[in-house]
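Input for the complex:
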Amino acid sequence: MTENNGDREQVARVRAAVADGAQEFLAGLVEWLRIPSISGDPANAKDVRRSAEHLATVLRDTGFPTVEVWETPGLPAVFADWPSDDEGAPTVVVYGHHDVQPVTPLELWEHPPFEPTVVADRLFARGAADDKGQVFFHTLGVTAHLAATGRTSPAVNLKLVVEGEEESGSPHFADLLRRHADRLACDVVVVSDSGMWSRDTPTVCTGMRGMTDGQVDFRGPAGDVHSGSFGGAIRNPLTEIARVLAGMHDADGHVTIDGFYDGVVELSDDERALIAKLPYDEAGWLVNARSSTAYGEKGFTTLERVWARPTAELNGIWGGYTGAGHKTIVPSQAHAKFSFRLVAGQDPLDIQAKFRNWLARAVPDGIEWDVTFYGDGVRPCLTPLDHPALAAVTRAMSAAFETEILYTREGGSGPEADLQDVLDAPVVFLGVSLPDDGWHAPNEKVEIPLLHKGAEAAAHLWADLARSLRQ
Amino acid sequence: MTENNGDREQVARVRAAVADGAQEFLAGLVEWLRIPSISGDPANAKDVRRSAEHLATVLRDTGFPTVEVWETPGLPAVFADWPSDDEGAPTVVVYGHHDVQPVTPLELWEHPPFEPTVVADRLFARGAADDKGQVFFHTLGVTAHLAATGRTSPAVNLKLVVEGEEESGSPHFADLLRRHADRLACDVVVVSDSGMWSRDTPTVCTGMRGMTDGQVDFRGPAGDVHSGSFGGAIRNPLTEIARVLAGMHDADGHVTIDGFYDGVVELSDDERALIAKLPYDEAGWLVNARSSTAYGEKGFTTLERVWARPTAELNGIWGGYTGAGHKTIVPSQAHAKFSFRLVAGQDPLDIQAKFRNWLARAVPDGIEWDVTFYGDGVRPCLTPLDHPALAAVTRAMSAAFETEILYTREGGSGPEADLQDVLDAPVVFLGVSLPDDGWHAPNEKVEIPLLHKGAEAAAHLWADLARSLRQ
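Predicted:
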């Protein structure tokens, strides 16, 4: 950000506009948070629909001229469009979701999850951070943008798509995007469903890992046989599945599947330096990981491993006798569930084919086997550090927080790659949640001042993108 | 066997005596088989007791001067003693059991399991072969021995111990032996609870494998954690248990546990040649093994692998998410059940210690682990091929079957090692069951003519041991 008087004035004006709207913003968010829009529970389907209608009304009141509830074979999304009066203004699609996670176990909540409660600067409710709070700050953001710039329409063509099935794995989202691709055509996608490193270290997320998962089934004897009579003279499917799956990693923690790393976008020295700049505390990370020791691919730090390296994990394994006491059998069957986290340059379907080929070579005679994949997987997404849209988000965050902005990634996987691929547009992340906000957990909360910062950053971002994407 | 006229006459006399007693023998066995002495089902405890009382009466009627029902903390055994009138006669203990396996699933039985049914030469009933039929032929055997030799007491001091909990793992048998060690002191133990290679290839079993089994537990994170957030940067207990347990074998199928083969009594060239003499049909063996391919330790045949080589088997494995669909976690726990089959020269407690030590070296940092063993295990037993008692059994079987007798072993494990160790006497096997007799399965049967051969062999054996053990 170039510091000059114009910028300083703009920062002050945006801040003042956000402060003006803060009370109404909080009241509106609280009202929305009362709706238990749990997409994972069919009993709440009506609530998810009510949540969509409620958001549509709010967006109309905010000033969006076009607001529509978009049906899917499952639960509805909300679309809103506020065109810029400026000829040739760039187009932005903001992504978020209005559905929330289940709330069990209820007894662990200090305040009822759908009775939003403010304690000091914190707003406690299911969905406060993930993701209603972060969708909602865009209403305050665009209002502040107009107030601070004196405009009557945004400087960018501003569109919102807020889905209702993100917490259920976004089963219909890619189709929805394809069906409405013309109306969602854009220059950049802004995802507001992510977090920052910490209150003191505001960050921008630059990517998420992809994923593909499934199940491997091994069969040895046609039925369980006696280990005294046959043990040691036939293949034991448990021993073989252990041997084959243990062979997915070498002694240095590298994945051994042929071609697994083909095309992987490696971390540059600059990116590694930026990651190293974060105030990372391994002891604290281990507490969150509920683990005593970090371990992973040789040659990479913990953050590099979870953010920028692909992995092969076993999620479950079972076979043979698993009850109390003993049963000395060579069992007939063995099963395992696996998942691969993928990084930019890897494609889930390609990895599926490579794993299948690798299994075909690794499984010995005497074992029948099969592998099943759960769908087509999720593609990774990554914003290159030199992308103009990322630079704009960084400037906008810097204006809001008035400090240096660093970069993170997410180890998990989400629908962001669909936005990137279907809309053929770069994805940048604008999120202000904190690691301790309790996503998917009891006592989810959001820090109200950070939602204000999110609104400020959005206000700055629309003005910035109008300039920078035209250059 | 030295063929001479005396032997030929003796063979004929024994055969005639067995034929004389055959009808009464069958009627007595049928009566005993009606008692459902299932030791594994507490509902049948009274039947096991009734079976013991019934056998005691039969043995008294046979002529044993001393017959006692021996109590245990569980189900009773039967002891019988018929001293020889000959000064310095050797002492033999015959072992068998009077309890039987459960009979589920009942609907697969063609005849009710406790309504003994004769079809041609076959007697169908639970326990017909395992083990009542083979205990019962000793009543006919000793009667034929006396009739053929004109004696009024056996040529050996003949003792029987018939336990009532063999099908429940003989939990009190070693204690029972210890308690009565003075009354069971003997020169040789004859076990009649085994089988032959086939009708056309009568054999003597020379040993059984030992066994020790247990469970390994691995713990990684204190609870399941998200594989996106933490996968690739902490130890996954499923991957580690797979890696550690896969490492129990090398590429040639040898067990890698340090010292595992220490002291193993290796097969001699003679023994390998004798095993190779058996009319072994791998295709038929694979049908029984319900498998398509034989596989095992390099350098050994299938029969050598199951009879004479120690093994490490996985019997069960479980951990992480094993339900429908997917759950992308790094799970907290992984578990496996294992069993080692042991051969002569190995001791279960020693193998337990070696496995624990090996695990301590194999399990990496970041994994908490434990190993639990199910009891002290079962010791292996093996009769050396040049043992005089084995030579006597071979001659007795040869006299009964009038053909060459070959040798087998059993891959499974039983209480025979307790007899060998507690009584400090060699164990030899005298059994006439066939592989298709259906032990532990529906439609268990025994071949009545083979029970007669068993009785003949016993009759010859007592006369032979009286001579050969004195020499």
